[in-house]
Amino acid sequence: MNLPQPPIISIRNLTKTYAAGEQVLKGIDLDIKQGEILALLGPNGAGKTTLISTICGLVRPTTGTITVGGHDIVKDYRQTRKLVGLVPQELTLGAFDVVVDTVRFSRGLFGLPPDHARVDEILNDLSLLDKKDSIVTRLSGGMKRRVLIAKALAHEPKILFLDEPTAGVDVELRKEMWALVEKLRLSGVTIILTTHYIEEAEEIADRVGVISDGRLLVIDEKQNLMNSLGKKQLVVDLRSPIEQLPESLAGFDVELSEDGYRITYTFDTQGDRTGITTLLQAVNNAGLVLKDLNTSQSSLEDIFVNLVHSDNER
Fold first, then answer.
1. How many domains does the chain have?
2. pLDDT at residue 72 in the model
3. Range of the domain at 148
4. CA distance 49 to 160
5. Domain final residue pick, 227, 260, 283
6. Distance from C-alpha of 199 to C-alpha of 182, rounded to nearest angstrom
7. 122-140 per-position pLDDT tens digit
């Protein structure tokens, strides 16, 4: 019998309160599976960067426990730091460093022997090989971000954290970066990323978590989120406008557009019956003439916005 793999990262009751009294993490519980891509979404100030920094050992938790690869991040910090690579939001590079030297140096920091072939392979994967002898200060912002990723990968970590990795980079680099992410995942690397580009999280992540005001509001597989929290709508375009909804539609979750030409019906995609047939019959009985019908499904962005909006109203 195949036993389930233990999570590569396990977080229990994690809180972080800074000296000034600001609590930025509030009781986070989270298990991260080995080899998955997890996207963390949240508005600015939600606690995403603090969460990542705490797991990586850069910020000390106030309460709670974190284990990485079975090791406690406080008691066994040497082991846990070897397992993780971090690509921060900010461009933290020495202006006069040579690209290949700074990547090799990062590898040496973790006690690994020199491996110029491996470093060149990492640079090649990031389209940096032809820039290996360049001084960092002469590179574009996008190229500098690639160097940060190369540094994070230099010691061959089992877990890679990407904190807003595509912020301020062009579309081409973004696509290359996600191709690299997929390649790393196929090699067994676990990847946790924060991003504002929700459509990218929707495309590449296995699971999605939403953080707001220091709390993890929800975490689940993408499709489960779409099914359980998403909405599906039927839009009925009328041939002639109406001033108000007829009484026969009072029992349905419908809205009338301001111009009176459109009725929008929201229904449960998981229910045994959608109620569409009954709705259309009621529309017909009310003497309304249909011009067109179409359906729409909530995107991950819709779900994210609704979750954060609801949390802010609490």
1. 2
2. 94
3. 9-227
4. 14
5. 227
6. 16
7. 899 888 899 999 998 888 8
